[in-house]
Write a structure and sequence with these properties.
Two copies of one chain form a homodimer. Chain A has 420 residues and is an alpha/beta fold. The first copy, chain A, has two domains: 139 residues, Aspartate Aminotransferase, domain 1 (Alpha-Beta Complex), CATH 3.90.1150.10; 248 residues, Aspartate Aminotransferase, domain 2 (3-Layer(aba) Sandwich). The longest helix of chain A is centred in the last third of the chain and has 27 residues. Chain A is globular. Chains A and B meet through α2, α4, α5, α7 and α8 of A and α2, α4, α5, α8 and α9 of B.
């Protein structure tokens, strides 16, 4: 009798987005004439940069000729892409990362989840790791750990016993503080989804020091690093490897999704330094780089040659300029949104180094109550903050990924909403 | 202190291909002038079909315009691709498979491995599944189960206690017999890599009946189904779902890699019927379709829109004709190879419904001894059968994925090799 992974049954039922869809459908049925504006979705809207398209056209053509045809590629990705990444994203920022420490992936989400395969599963009482996540949090970090057995079933708040929740609130600037208890794996996301907060150099150094002191591993999600505004100074690291000591305690996830409009084209990468070790059952150090290499050769299908050529073009002069243009476009949306909301009396966070605004609901409304009001009065769909965790209650998330005209129309509609 | 997955340490060190590379390097150093022919690699050599390239060119272009740009796609793949697959690969063969039972993937290998995530991990004594594999075997089935803790450390033959090995030999036509003991998960690959053997309708029906009787799951790898020669009659099923009862006991893996030359372009799919259940810890049935949907939405990055458009073109009239042409080309290689080897006195299996020939070594030589001789005398690189498992000893695998001129040259060289 084939047995399933019972841990899947602990997962709460992906409440957030289905519930949004349910409420929107109910509203649309009653008001079929309403023109809804979706401000909740973290998906890009602008076309793929021309440099990437030209490179992929050529790559498709390559696949049509005997002498340029590419079959199975290397498990960790093509050397030319790994080298471009190491050079531009790390060496030019002074980070000591080699091309063979870069593993090309289909995107952050998959790697975040699959990475747990090389780490001990189960809860801490049975040899597993103590896992710390922020609250609010990108749900993938939590759900993949539930699937791996790191937790008990969800409690009445939707939180899982066994996880350490690092509360991120307006009081601490939405930057998680070092916990009093030990944590073996710590997920950090900066710039943050959903809050838009960033971790500065000093705070990140404290995390690196903590991790090295405790043999912990930082899982640093930098999917939004290209949205950091360097004109504000160099106080915000783009990579965890800008911090001394990170090579022995940190894995970094990156994506071309938001930087180059690759959400539908799919490519990202994960960095695992050769100096990074975990411990086996008897406490001996084992390099994670070798374990991940083995995972990738055995369990992972490589990224399409065509897509890897598209990603390589991100690092050409034209590609860099076009990607910068995309980021500037979305961040101008964020600026317009933040200005309009602030003028309107809303208390806004984020939107300065991230394409997300994290906004307090007016009048102490719950996230869902304000969601309903925004939908009914302004025909705007936001994301209720409580969907990202307990500390998200009383907030909503707005995304700057939209056409300019849509953003302006949304802000126009909001201007008639009574806030006080 | 972060703990690793100790099961990875049980893996033998990917002996086969590194050892081939070592011996080839040593030979090349001594004989730098030798023109080696690689007949060991299961990677395609012919260009991608024009229909797929045209579709991908258009898809790249789509990504360049606001009104045709595609961001995040559905977790299980686009409906248009799933529908084309359900129609052409299943309904037209009389199989009761719906589009929403088809999950688009990056390829068989990844899905074979990741599928274990929704099943109980650990060995059978601790709530895990009893896993049966054939011998010889595609190593991914074994290694991914070792990683999931289904086995003990490898024994002196490289076999893992805890696995049930189904011996496939010339005596049973390389088709595994139903085991005397229970097995919860059973990997079947037909047409087979490496032996080229196929499971006929009657034999597959016995497996389906066994699985339904015991609540087992068949993991049916049909990556090479397009190589089945239907002119030989309809006795060899292309899909496990051609067998009555398979919807309640089988998962099927498919790939465009060998059928459409997608080894570097990357796309495949996995079928999980809604009628298929596993059991939870207290014996209740749980649908695997829902668990896999949850796995895919949480842990999997979707396949590129561009690549999915390329795969869709496989089902157009032009695409089908071009893919058929590829298969005919490689199978003509196989026919030429089989004729030449047989004329030469070799005992050959496979090569009739699969692009692989499974050949007995002459004079009772071990697989590695003959590998060395073939390299030294004919400058041909084969794959030693023993690398696929104990029952592969005394065999070698030759691949028909090569240019015609290369195949002819290889057979010419072999004709001077003394076999008796």
């Amino acid at each position: 009798m084939a047995r399933i992974n019972d841990h899947y049954l602990k997962l709460s039922r992906g409440y957030l987005f289905p519930e949004i869809a349910r409420r929107v459908a109910a509203f649309t049925e009653q008001h079929p004439e309403a023109e809804l504006i979706r401000m909740g979705i973290g998906d890009v809207t602008e076309p793929l940069p021309e440099a990437c398209r030209v490179a992929m056209m050529k790559a498709v053509d390559d696949q049509g000729r005997h002498n340029t045809f590419h079959g199975y590629g290397p498990a960790a990705g093509y050397a030319w892409l790994r080298e471009a990444i190491a050079e531009h994203d790390f060496k030019l920022r002074g980070c000591d990362i080699d091309a063979d420490e870069v593993f090309i992936s289909h995107g952050c989400k998959g790697d975040c989840g699959h990475l747990l395969d090389i780490l001990a599963s189960g809860d801490a009482a049975h040899g597993g790791n103590v896992v710390a996540v922020t609250d609010p949090v990108y749900p993938v970090y939590v759900d993949t750990n539930v699937m791996a057995g790191a937790t008990g079933p969800a409690d009445e708040h939707g939180e899982y016993p066994g996880l350490v929740y690092l509360r991120c609130t307006a009081e601490n600037g939405f930057v998680p503080a070092i916990p009093g208890q030990k944590a073996d794996l710590i997920y950090l996301c900066s710039p943050n989804n959903p809050t838009g907060a960033v971790i500065d150099r000093a705070a990140l150094k404290r995390w690196v020091d903590y991790a090295n002191a405790h043999g912990s591993i930082l899982l640093f999600d930098a999917a939004y690093e290209s949205y950091i505004n360097d004109d504000a100074g160099d106080d915000i690291p783009h990579s965890v490897y800008e911090i001394e000591g990170a090579r022995t305690c940190a894995i970094e996830f990156r994506s071309f999704s938001k930087r180059a409009g690759f959400t539908g084209t799919r490519c990202g990468y994960t960095v695992i330094p050769k100096a990074l070790v975990g411990r086996d059952a008897v406490g001996r150090p084992v390099g994670l780089h070798g374990l991940w290499q083995r995972h990738q050769s055995t369990k992972n299908s490589t990224v399409s040659y065509i897509v890897q050529r598209g990603a390589e073009a991100v690092y050409t002069e034209a590609g860099r300029a076009q990607c910068d243009g995309l980021v500037r476009f979305y961040m101008e949306n964020a600026r317009l949104m933040r200005a309009a909301l602030t003028a309107q009396g809303f208390t806004c966070f984020g939107g300065e180094h991230a394409p997300y605004l994290w906004v307090q609901t007016p009048g102490g409304l719950s996230s869902w109550a304000f969601f309903d009001r925004l939908l009914a009065e302004s025909h705007i769909i936001a994301t209720p903050g409580s969907g990202f965790g307990r500390s998200g209650e009383g907030y909503f998330r707005l995304s700057a990924f939209n056409a300019r005209a849509t953003v302006l129309e949304a802000m126009e509609r909001l201007s008639t909403l009574a806030v006080a």
